[in-house]
Write a structure and sequence with these properties.
Radius of gyration: 30 Å
Strand content: 15-25%
Helix content: 40-55%
Number of helices: 14
Length: about 350
Amino acid sequence: MNRCRRLLMGVALAILIPCFALARPMDSGGAAAADAAVLERAESEAVSLEKAAGEGARDMAASMSAAELAKSAHVGRAREDLDALLRRDPTNVRGNILYARLGLAAVLCTPLSFDASKPMEAPLPASAADLDQALDRALLREPDNAEVYYWKATVCAAPIVRATVPTMTRTSLNFEGAVRAMKRAVELAPDSVGYREALAFELLDLGRPDEARDALRPAAGGQHPMYRLLSDWTHLPHPPNAAPCPDARGDALTVAARHGLTDWTNARVDAFVCPAPLKEVEAFYARLFPGFAFYQMQKQENEGMTARFLVTRLTWKGESLIPAGSMAELGTGENSNSIELFAAELKHPTDENRERY
């Protein structure tokens, strides 16, 4: 009996000893390597989701693919592993940045759905505060990390669309807070053109174009396309009673942010409609730019309506805009240092044209 007991104990020890060996804590080098792998996977998934969200915003089919990606098992595993890492190391800077990036991108990959019988809040729910808090935890460890402030601003400025039939509003978690955070990012990394662009867009959303222009002034030696565009707008105001066409400015900014002026001169676009004779518009600009005049290209008459199409040019010389002195000067071709102005004057417009403009 004693022999059997000794044999059983020996078997038990033989079984338990390998188990203890398997359960030994990972050494510091192994733990660091495991955490690095978690962060690499999270980074890869964040980049994929951000790309998918951008494509989905422009194309319906891509939007559905983005939604599937956000719900995929591999994205879910990456987020679970990252959550586990942050439970062990709550102030891990890269981990908290990736937590915010994954959370924001996953929500932006989700298509907007609307049930008329229920209030709707999308695409970024109020729980976005959790993403902002993650970035605050990162700042506890690195209070002067520009990238953390950049993502904090991005989360705070992300759109929240709220709708209850028949009204719909667009807001954000904290837009003024986003501007403060992005300004701090620029202070910490003044040579980052991307941070300056992001700050400019946020200021423009708040209707502060002069501040947006100043934020971009140091970028690219004063030749950044957005800075040039904002300078154009600042120096070329609309006449009284003019109704701006905001889509023209929004499209121009998007293109200007992505392309240089040399190849994309036409990106510097503005448009407005003014219920006044062209001579009044011309006189308004002549007070700002002595010698200013429009030059007629074409005149059409149809069903009692007269349409005149005119053009002129203003050219930058230092900080001043100099108007073209004759039609002949306009034949020298476009250049990135000038502003082309086109005007269409409609007299006795038809009801269709009146409604359109």
